[in-house]
Write the structure tokens for this entry.
Amino acid sequence: MDVRYERASKSFGSTQALAPLDLTVPDGKFLAMLGPSGCGKTTALRLLAGLEQPTSGRIYIGDRDVTRLEPRHRDVAMVFQSYALYPHKSVAENIAYPLRLRRSAAAERDERVRRVAELLGIGGLLGRMPRELSGGQRQRVALARAIVRRPHAFLMDEPLSNLDAQLRLQMRVEIKRLQRELGVTTLYVTHDQIEAMTMADLIAVMRDGALQQLATPAELYERPANLFVARFCGSPPMNVLDGAVEDGSFRHPTGSIPLPGAEIRGPVKLGFRPEHAEVTDHGAPDSLAGEIYVVEPLGNETLVTVRLEDELLNIRAHAGFDRPVGERCAVRPAEGRVHLFDKDSGEALAKPGERGASSAGHAATAGI
Ligand SMILES: Nc1ncnc2c1ncn2[C@@H]1O[C@H](COP(=O)(O)OP(=O)(O)OP(=O)(O)O)[C@@H](O)[C@H]1O
Ligand SMILES: [Mg+2]
């Protein structure tokens, strides 16, 4: 079922944890709610679960207004960062618990527990106690308990944050696969942009309790609605320079970049991603002059930091890139890959050569 926030807000005393939020997760889709610590992600999830009452606005699951409904009547399943298992129940009993609450028949219950455990690769652990499991195995048990029945929605709050990097990667893949297989509408909270980009159909980027952009991962990457989104999504983050557009070029104290088709003029911020620029020779046309500051070989590529006068730029270069620190060089952004932002508000301006505003993020659901 789809899930909908309608002008739903939450204040704790004088703190506005969530500004009025309008957001729909279409039926069966995976939406990641992404943003830095304290931006209101957990609050939004708890409103949907019924663990908090909104200060204003309404919440719908399908056609049903659940705003005043008790959590247990909302039929949503939750997985939290701290996945509390019942310590004195076996793995099988832990997983079966939601079914027991709903008084399913014992035979059917056992069958479902077994199926879900197989699905998550913990079929051999059903007889163990939680203390006899590794962190990753416990995580899977918590996940199994959430998916053992078909709720209207899955709500997951940073479910992978306690796992080591490798296990996170593995679980990321499994949760994504499971969600597609089960087709249950999912709200997944994370502050990890890679998790959001790789897992979600849609990403809602939050900041200070307010929705910044709702878009597909591709749209978010190609057309960030503002500087905050642009810099939050992508690693290393987008490079941003202050300058001005004059006569169809971006002017900076260290050089100028042609912007064919740019319709604006005056002060702006120019952004480009580390993968959309090359390090070239000092004095090359259409480039910004600087020097090599740091070179970090990663095996499959090289991260190069270039110092312009006062700014450091991150550039992704090929694996064999090897130039001495301090050498004079230049940076040339790829044509058509630069973003312009209003210098004060940070809102995205029309991409050079394209008509219309690029901050069309809120319309992105249309295509999904
Ligand atoms: N029960 C509460 N009482 C008072 N303030 C709260 C309460 N819960 C959350 N807040 C405040 O509301 C804001 C949003 O909190 P929330 O937990 O939703 O953030 P978050 O995005 O989940 O952050 P994190 O990534 O750190 O988990 C924060 O400023 C927080 O301090
Ligand atoms: Mg949180």
